[in-house]
Amino acid sequence: xxxxxxxxxxxxxxxxxxxxxxxxxxxxxxxxxxxxxxxxxxxxxxxxxxxxxxxxxxxxxxxxxxxxxxxxxxxxxxxxxxxxxxxxxxxxxxxxxxxxxxxxxxxxxxxxxxxxxxxxxxxxxxxxxxxxxxxxxxxxxxxxxxxxxxxxxxxxxxxxxxxxxxxxxxxxxxxxxxxxxxxxxxxxxxxxxxxxxxxxxxxxxxxxxxxxxxxxxxxxxxxxxxxxxxxxxxxxxxxxxxxxxxxxxxxxxxxxxxxxxxxxxxxxxxxxxxxxxxxxxxxxxxxxxxxxxxxxxxxxxxxx
Length: 304
Prior knowledge:
Blueprint: E1 6-7, E2 17-18, E3 21-22, H1 32-38, H2 53-57, E4 86-89, E5 91-92, H3 107-119, E6 129-132, E7 143-147, E8 152-153, H4 156-166, E9 171-177, H5 179-193, E10 200-201, E11 213-214, H6 224-228, E12 247-252, E13 258-264, H7 268-273, H8 279-303
Parallel strand pairs: 1-11, 4-6, 7-9, 9-13
Antiparallel strand pairs: 2-3, 5-8, 10-12, 12-13
């Protein structure tokens, strides 16, 4: 895979090509994600993805209709050799509010899969999968995603399965958990998964933040609800104990390979799920933080 570092700054990024698509002269002052959005035939207005019913027009009380989202056919030669976004289903203690493992699902997964396909040369499965950690199919996929993990409750069997997966080439990205108690709980669960291993906090100097897109500061994405209230963090999760900064905590194996990355004080996935709801949110968070960081992570996983 050819990798070119792309600067993410306040000014739009100029690229000659975006994945498979050619950029026209009138689009040359747009960012890669804006270009992909403009080339989406279902746009409601230039430069912004359509407002999918999964984000705004659909009531959360009914299941999403896959036909309301972008879809595509897999090339026959690659149908068994594509990147698949895998979300992990897990149990939560105390009947956690906020959806637990299914928070932001499936809008988040479908939208990210679309943009990953548009903005890279990867063949990407349009639908993704949802698996338990004990599913034997887990080892067929190099990347798994967990969200809302402040309430996750893993069994001993699930801890052993995740340990085996991570130490045999797999990678876990976990997102959307806030405040001090959440980190203490997550760290405790991961100590059961990887006993004797301590997380290492990544700084902006780590190459994962510039693998494809050059991020100049650590991304921090609030949910659209927090942002609309004027907050940059989700305060309803509890006390931050004076620390509202984003933290990227990574676990490594004996060979120094990163096997898990937990995005604390962040809701990266909301920038994927809610990309079509509000132009300012899209341009500030989806375009400049959520998609660039997500693509960096996937590229890192697939090349290390």
